[in-house]
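fyi for ur records
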Amino acid sequence: MGSFNRLHLIRQVDLFTLRLFLSAVEEQQIGRAAIRENIAASTATKRIQDLEDIAGVKLLERGPKGVVPSPAGAVLVRYARMIFDNIEGMRSEISAFTEGMRGQVTLASARSIIVPFLARELGDYARDFPMVDLVLREVENAEIVEAVSRGDADIGVFAMAYELELGAVDVTPYRRDRLVAVVPRLHPLSERASVTFADLLPENLIPVSAMMGAYRAAAKRLGQDYTPAFSVRSAGVAISLVQAKLGVTVLPECLLSHDLFEHVTSVELAEPWAARAIHIATARGRPMSPPAQALMKQLLDRPRANADGAAGTDSA
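which gave:
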């Protein structure tokens, strides 16, 4: 085979041949790829041989069990998929001019972010783009970035934490809030201007499951183990236990509504990790669909009106 010639490749290769090549890789047989693309097997074989001649390098390794991409073929697979992703994005964007925005966008986030920040903005988005199917997945904070990385979600909104692996995503700042200690009214700590995690540890510190990792890391830095008597999934349940004077907890301040303060008190948590930075994650190297782009723009462009809106306790 000859050497690679970029201009020759651009002039000679058609999209159908690239689609056929991808089908051969996915089916692992040229014959099955031919059936999938509705052409004769001999024609499919000839097209892929011509593609290899144009590229100047072997793209498929043939064996008794079928075909697999060669190292050069694997490169072509990656770029061909990007080409077809971009073509689909182009089709969606162009159709939006005549049909209105259509499609589906999936967002993953945690309850403590959905309630105070996202719910109102998602409602606005649904009204602005009524033909887009908006799918919301409520998952724990640690699972949000993984969902985006796997392609299970187009956008993830998460609270930054030191243990998260962010190598496969692009991250954009979204909101900020803070964690506070929540203690019963008339509790000795309720008179303090601020408390530390060391002040809370001797109490029955009730963790919401999403906060367990942060609690254990903070206890480890103090040289102590953290083994809670209670463990709950909901901030509302944690606050109910504090109201019953069964312990104290730590929660995002935005989840506390004013009517709670008849029974509990919030106290500043004087810890570096009490500042909660909320970010948006999107998959690195994967083009966003027009509906996802529109949602991303809406999240970033809308006024930060939710910052002073507290939520009810049964929601997080």
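The domain at 100-176+276-315 is CATH 3.40.190.10 (D-Maltodextrin-Binding Protein; domain 2). thats all i got for now
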